[in-house]
Amino acid sequence: MKKQSFVLLSLAALALATGPLAYADTISGLFNTGVDSLGNPLVGGNGVADPNYTVISGPGASIYPLSAVTYNCCYPADQPSGTNGNSRWISVSIGGSAAASGVYDFQTTFSLSGLDPTTATITGQFAADNHVEETDLNGVAIAGATTDTYSSYTSFTIPVGSAFVSGLNTLDFLVKDDGAPMALRVDSLEGTASPLGIISGVPEPGMIPILASGLALLAIGRRFRK
C-alpha cells in the first residue's frame, strides 16, 4: 500500500512539474474572411466591408489599400446555405465584377504579444477564384500554401519555425485572377503558441513554487515508503 501511494504521489509531482511546460495559448486576432471582430459571419448582402482584411495591392487604378468586401455568389464552397458557416467570400467590389486580371494581395494581421514566436503554428483552409498563388507570413512565402480551385477548400499549414515575429505579424494571400469575377475565402483559420518563458522545457520563474510542491510530495512519498 505504501509503495502504491509513493508511486501515485510521484506521478502527481511529475504532472505538476512538467504539465505546464507543454501549455500553448490560442493566437488571438486570427479571423476567417467575411466575419466580424467576434468571428461571426457578417450579415447583409454583397459589399459589406470586412473589418479584418485589407487589399494591399492589385492591378488597375491606384485605389489601394482598400477594405475587402463580402462577395457571396455561386461558388460551391458557399453551399448549401450561402452566408451560413464560418466565413464568407471577399473581393475588391460588390460581386467582384470590377476586378481586372492580375494579382491581388489580401492582408490580415495578428499579434503574438506575450507569446513565443518560435513555437507558433497556424492552420486553415482556403479557396479562390482563380488561384491563391502564394501565401506570405511577414513577407516570406509559405511552402505549399497555394490552391487552384474555388470548388472546394484546400488545407494549409504554417509550421513551427516559420517567419513568425514578436508582436504584430502579417499574413497575406496573393490571389491571381484570370478574369472577373475574383474572390477569396479563408476558413478554419487558427493558431497556437506557447507563452513567453516556457522555452525548451525550462520553466519560467512563476513555475518554481509548483516545482517546489512537487518535490515536497516526493519527499512525503519517500517517508511513506520507509
Fold topology:
Elements: H1 2-18, E1 25-26, E2 49-57, E3 66-70, E4 90-91, E5 102-111, E6 121-129, E7 131-137, E8 140-141, E9 154-158, E10 168-177, E11 183-193, H2 208-225
Antiparallel strand pairs: 1-11, 2-3, 2-5, 3-4, 5-10, 6-9, 6-11, 7-8, 7-10
Helix pairs in contact: 1-2
Side-by-side strand order of the widest sheet: 4-3-2-5-10-7-8
How many domains in all? 2
Total DSSP E strands: 11
N- and C-termini, Cα separation: 12 Å
Look up the CATH topology of the largest domain.
Jelly Rolls
Secondary-structure arrangement, i.e. CATH architecture of the largest domain: Sandwich
Task: List low-pLDDT spans.
Answer: 1-21, 79-84, 200-205
Mean pLDDT: 81
Using only C-alpha atoms, the radius of gyration works out to: 24 Å
- Give the structural class: alpha+beta
Q: How many helices?
A: 2
Listing every helix as H and every strand as E from the N terminus to the C terminus, the arrangement reads HEEEEEEEEEEEH
Question: Can you give the helix content as a percent range?
Answer: 10-25%
Strand % is: 25-35%
CATH class annotation of the largest domain: Mainly Beta
Main sheet specs: 7 strands, antiparallel
Shape: globular
Tags for this entry?
226 residues; alpha+beta; Jelly Rolls; 2 domains; 7-stranded antiparallel beta sheet; 4-stranded antiparallel beta sheet; 2 helices; 11 strands; 15% helix; globular; disordered N terminus
